[in-house]
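Please decode residue identities from the backbone states below.
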């Protein structure tokens, strides 16, 4: 049984098992596209595969760095709000102490 695939749905995805491409009549014999050796294609595919496998790691690392920056910004904002709250409280206590001292001096 001779099963052939199409461009969109090839019979196999392994380049070594695919039929070699034949040049068309309209393409000159010494065209600008050089013939690619299968070893170069395998090395290229292996590097691409390794890079593709590392993409999720890089994305996870970038995501974690972003989450760490967000957490640091959140901690800074919480500390700033708490500092302002403590400053207002200290100002109220200082004003109350000043009033109490003024009342003591007046009597």
């Amino acid at each position: 049984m001779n099963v052939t695939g199409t461009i969109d749905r090839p019979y196999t995805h392994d380049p070594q098992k695919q039929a070699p491409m034949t040049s068309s009549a309209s393409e000159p014999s010494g065209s600008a596209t050089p013939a690619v050796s299968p070893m170069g294609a395998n090395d290229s595919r292996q590097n691409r595969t390794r890079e593709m496998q590392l993409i999720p790691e890089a994305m996870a690392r970038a995501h974690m760095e972003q989450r760490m920056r967000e957490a640091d910004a959140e901690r800074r904002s919480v500390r700033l709000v708490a500092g302002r709250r403590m400053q207002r409280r200290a100002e109220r206590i200082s004003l109350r102490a000043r009033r109490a001292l003024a009342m003591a001096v007046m009597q």
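Observation: The radius of gyration is 37 Å.
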